[in-house]
Structures are given as C-alpha cells and as structure tokens.
Automatic annotation (TrEMBL):
Protein name stated in the entry: Cytochrome P450
Gene: yjiB
Pfam families linked: p450
Domain of life: Bacteria
Family, as annotated: Belongs to the cytochrome P450 family.
Species name: Brevibacillus reuszeri
Keywords, ordered alphabetically: Heme, Iron, Metal-binding, Monooxygenase, Oxidoreductase
Sample GO molecular function, one term: iron ion binding
PROSITE patterns (UniProt xref): CYTOCHROME_P450
Cross-referenced InterPro entries: Cyt_P450 (IPR001128), Cyt_P450_B (IPR002397), Cyt_P450_CS (IPR017972), Cyt_P450_sf (IPR036396)
C-alpha cells in the first residue's frame, strides 16, 4: 500500500488512510489542518483537544506529570517487577501478559495517582471496560458495552470525587494532590478536569504499556540470541525497547479530522474528512528506515512514531519507556532461555488500532 496507494480512501469505513512516514508526519505536525476534536465538548480529554485549549491544559498537567516525578518512580517500578517475577518463578512457567505485563502498569498508575492498594482490582476492571473497543458485531452487544462504559464512568467519577475530597483536606505525595495544586498564572484545573485527566491516564496508559512489555518478550522468544545479548549488555535495553516500539507498535494508528481542504502527497482531501495515520506502516517505511523489516537492537537513528508526534506526543512516554526498560532488564538478568509454549494459539487483541496478544505463556 505504501508503494501503490500511499493515501487512499476507504469507502466502507468512510475515511482516508495514510501509510507513508513522511505523510503521517505531515498530518501529525499540523494540528490546525488535522484536528483531534472528535468527542463533544462534554468530557473532552486532552487527547481530543485542539489549541489553544490543548496548549493550556497540557501545560497544566505537565506541571504534575514531570520527568522528575516519573524518574523518581524507578526504584518502586523495580521492586514491583521483582515481586511479580518472584511470584511465578518456582515451576518455570508463566503467562507474561497475566503475570507481569498487565499488573505492572496498573499498579504503577494506581500508586502514582494515589489510589489505595485495596482498590486496584476495581481499578483494573474499570480501565478494561473503558478501553473495550466499540467494534462489536451485533447491536445488542454494542448497547451492552456502552451501558457498561457509562456505568464504569459514573463509578469512576464518584470514586475520584471522593479521593479528591480527601486530598484537598490533606494533600499527599501523589499525582492527584499535585494536579489539585498545579496552576499557571492563576488558572487551575477544576474537579471535573482532574477526573477526566485521571481517567485518560487509565485508558491511555495501561493497555498500551501492557502490549509494549508483551511485544518485547515476544521478540525475545522469536530471536533467542537477543536474550543472551541483553543479558550480557544490559545497556542495550533502552535501544531494544525503542526498536520494539518501531517494529511492534502497541498503537497502530492515529486519527484526525481535516479542518480545511488539503493535499497529502498528490492526493487532494476536502475539509471534514477523517484521516487515519498508520503508525504500523510508517514505522516500516523503507524511505525512512533502512532495512525496515529487520529488527536491529541498536538501530540509530530511530525516530519511530509509536508515541505519535507533535503537540499530542504521548505524555506518558517517559513512564512507558521506564516500565518497559525495567521489565526487560529484569527479565534479561533473571530469566534465561525463555521460550514461548509452542502450540498455544496467539489470540490478537480484537482491535485494528491495538497491537498485542491476550496471552503469552512462556
Ligand atoms: C498520547 C501511545 C503509554 C498517556 C499518546 C499518543 C500515542 C500514544 C500514539 C498520541 C495520540 C494522538 O496524537 O492522537 C502510547 C504508547 C504507550 C503509551 C504506545 C505505551 C507503550 C502511555 C502512558 C500514559 C500515557 C503510560 C500515562 C500514564 C498519554 C496521554 C496522551 C497520550 C495523556 C495525550 C497527550 C496529548 O493529547 O497531549 N500516547 N502511549 N500514554 N498518552 Fe500515551
């Protein structure tokens, strides 16, 4: 498709697909022409805002979600990872998804936000419901999913409202307390904005990081020599994680809507059209990445689009990278000769926009 129809209209889905790196880059770097506004004003999250509101909101939440806040989490992420690996090692078998890749990001986000430990299971269930795709076959199922979502949203709203009340009375060393106090020239976030942002962290941060970790382990089992390499040279792990993000990006595509008539490549597109930038394809574009289908552990440069590009560039990227690096470093240090349990069917996550598998027994 990159070679034949790099920009094409899909009649069935009523949207444009963009496959080349250069074109995806053009879309993502120009929010004035390619808008992120998809939802209504109600419950609008950062992800669906355009400037100037996006600029203000991003500046405010960035005050709480700083690189230092994230870097300080490293020792805690390390100990959670070790605890999770300790729990499964006795018989030498584990399911990477269930035993490590799912719980690690959920525990980290819950602790970061300041959610009590006992509520984690609840938290995970809510976040699963929120990211469950709407692409269901029958109308009945669709209605059921939407009803579940509405209920989960109401429960989460009530839950966070209670936590905010407590943090306002007695601030703690957590993200909710920081969000409550963050201000830029007197402007602060209101309760509703903090709730919507917290829910965005849940929805945007958990499943994506789960898939990053699982996809990384999958690479280690597909090419066993990588295990030895990373065991001997742990300093290669950050580059390895970047290459996993390029090669198996957890988020496969990013959507926008045109605000005016525009041309991508030599294809004219009218205002008001949906445009999907395929990260999965851009990351394998031979015009940008030499030998794109080869996994190169220390590929440089590696300007993949796994975290997007431009003003919406993933706010959680430092956290996702840190979790991925710590998890893989621990695996490379502690476990040797990890093998996928042959014969187990690999079930993909049932969404065209998410790349990962439901189970990965090793
Ligand atoms: C935005 C991917 C982890 C929070 C994005 C975008 C992508 C992305 C592609 C841009 C979407 C767009 O341009 O429309 C990923 C991947 C992750 C990951 C692949 C894991 C490997 C996280 C984590 C968090 C997070 C751990 C937070 C805890 C966000 C937020 C935005 C965002 C808040 C919106 C930023 C904005 O609109 O300004 N992410 N993400 N993400 N991500 Fe992530």
């Amino acid at each position: 498709l990159r070679g034949t129809t790099p920009v094409r209209y899909d009649e069935n889905r009523k949207c444009w697909d963009v496959f080349r790196y250069e074109d995806a880059h053009q879309v993502l770097k120009d929010p004035a022409t390619f808008s992120s506004k998809r939802g209504g004003e109600e419950n609008e999250s950062l992800l669906m805002m355009d400037p100037p509101r996006h600029t203000q909101m991003r500046a405010l939440v960035s005050k709480a979600f700083t690189p230092k806040v994230i870097a300080d989490l490293a020792p805690r992420i390390q100990s959670i990872t070790d605890e999770l690996l300790d729990a499964v090692q006795s018989d030498g078998k584990m399911d990477m998804v269930h035993d490590l890749a799912v719980p690690l990001p959920v525990i980290v986000i819950a602790e970061l936000l300041g959610v009590p430990t006992k509520d984690r299971k609840l938290f995970k269930d809510w976040s699963d419901i929120l990211v469950k795709g709407p692409a269901k076959n029958t109308e009945e199922l669709f209605v059921q999913v939407m009803a579940e979502r509405t209920q989960a949203r109401q429960e989460l709203d009530a839950y966070f409202a209670e936590i905010m009340k407590l943090r306002r009375q007695e601030p703690q060393d957590d993200l909710i307390s920081l969000l409550l106090s963050a201000d830029i020239e007197g402007e602060k976030l209101d309760d509703k904005e903090i709730i919507i942002f917290s829910i965005l962290l849940l929805a945007a941060g958990n499943e994506t990081t789960t898939n990053l970790i699982t996809n990384a382990v999958r690479r280690l089992t597909e090419d066993q020599s990588l295990q030895q390499t990373l065991h001997e040279q742990p300093a290669l792990v950050p580059g390895f994680i970047e290459e996993v993000l390029r090669y198996y990006p957890p988020v496969q595509a990013i959507g926008r809507i045109t605000t005016k008539d525009v041309q991508i490549g030599d294809v004219p597109i009218q205002a008001g059209e949906q445009v999907i930038s395929w990260v999965a394809s851009a990351n394998r574009d031979e015009a940008k990445f030499p030998d794109p289908d080869t996994f190169i552990v220390d590929r440089k440069p590696n300007a993949h689009l796994a975290f997007g590009f431009g003003i919406h560039f993933c706010l959680g990227a430092p956290l996702a990278r840190l979790e991925g690096q710590i998890a893989i470093q621990a695996i490379a240090r502690r476990l040797q000769h990890i093998r996928f349990v042959e014969g187990t069917p690999l079930t993909p996550i049932p969404s065209p926009f998410v790349y990962g598998v439901k189970e990965f027994p090793v």
